[in-house]
């Protein structure tokens, strides 16, 4: 039995039977991976308490030869990000970045930069929700996934997005935007996303309502 190990963040959890789950991970080693967690919904399952949205685990899985759904053999919880569930705003922001990663990536296309970006951003959201951080994440994700945005720096919005894109995560969190600047930056960025990626995240309207600063 040829088992593979990877460090992964849970992007999605889907019940498939009364006892089992299909779990979508974004992993450092293999990119986006789907696994079948047999018996994970049972009270005495060895997976109990180790699989939920945003959890970061070390996973062991057996790769299928017939499909992209692999068998989860074992997992070890590394970080639960429990505080992401403390408020609607933090939960929405975490769901937003996870959905963006799912939309911007293909199955089993390894990209360690995206994994590191996701892990860092979830950790920062857990401490404080920040609207500019989410702009920074989205621009960095587009670049890491192969869509390099080019902004017209002679426009105020272009200058804002270029400044955010070249900042560190900590630097982005220090940027102060007016409500109008934030709206304009979001509109420009989302127009680019919808044109190039063509998979607008479903949770975007809720995120726009919940994350204003």
The first-to-last residue Cα distance is: 50 Å
Main beta sheet:
5 strands, mixed, barrel
According to DSSP, the number of beta strands is 5
Task: Name the structural class.
Answer: alpha+beta
- Tally of helical segments: 7
Mean pLDDT comes to 96
CATH architecture of the largest domain: Up-down Bundle
Which strand order does the major sheet show? 1-2-3-5-4
Helical proportion, percent range: 40-55%
Share of residues in strands: 15-25%
> Which topology of the largest domain does CATH recognise?
de novo design (two linked rop proteins)
| Poorly predicted spans | none
The H/E string reads EEEEEHHHHHHH
Which geometry do the CA atoms define? Answer: elongated
Number of domains: 2
Compact overview of the structure:
The protein has helices at residues 88-104, 112-127, 131-144, 156-166, 169-174, 179-196, 204-210, and strands at 3-15, 21-27, 31-37, 56-62, 69-79. It is α+β, with helices and mostly antiparallel strands. Strand 2 (21-27) and strand 3 (31-37) form a beta hairpin.
Write up this protein.
Helix 1 (88-104) packs antiparallel against helix 2 (112-127), helix 1 packs antiparallel against helix 7 (204-210) and helix 4 packs across helix 6. Strands 1-2-3-5-4 form a five-stranded mixed beta barrel. With 213 residues, it is α+β, with helices and mostly antiparallel strands. It has two domains: 3-80, Beta Barrel (OB fold (Dihydrolipoamide Acetyltransferase, E2P)), CATH 2.40.50.140; 83-210, de novo design (two linked rop proteins) (Up-down Bundle), CATH 1.20.1440. It has helices at residues 88-104, 112-127, 131-144, 156-166, 169-174, 179-196, 204-210, and strands spanning 3-15, 21-27, 31-37, 56-62, 69-79. The relative contact order is 0.13.
């Amino acid at each position: 039995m040829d088992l593979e190990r990877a460090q992964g963040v849970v992007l999605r959890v889907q019940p498939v039977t009364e006892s089992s789950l299909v779990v979508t991970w974004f992993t450092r080693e293999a990119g986006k991976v789907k696994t079948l967690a047999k018996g994970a919904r049972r009270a005495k399952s060895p997976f109990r308490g180790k699989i939920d949205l945003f959890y970061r685990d070390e996973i062991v899985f057996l790769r299928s030869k017939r499909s992209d759904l692999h068998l989860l053999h074992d997992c070890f919880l590394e970080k639960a990000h429990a505080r992401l569930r403390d408020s609607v705003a933090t939960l929405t922001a975490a769901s937003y970045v996870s959905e963006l990663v799912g939309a911007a990536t293909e199955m089993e296309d390894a990209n360690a930069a995206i994994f590191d970006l996701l892990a860092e951003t979830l950790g920062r959201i857990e401490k404080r929700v920040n609207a500019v951080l989410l702009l920074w994440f989205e621009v960095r994700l587009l670049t890491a996934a192969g869509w390099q945005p080019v902004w017209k720096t002679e426009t105020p919005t272009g200058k804002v997005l270029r400044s955010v894109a070249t900042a560190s995560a900590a630097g982005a969190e220090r940027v102060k935007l007016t409500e109008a600047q934030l709206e304009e930056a979001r509109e420009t960025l989302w127009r680019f996303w919808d044109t190039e990626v063509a998979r607008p995240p479903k949770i975007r309207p809720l995120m726009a309502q919940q994350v204003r600063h």
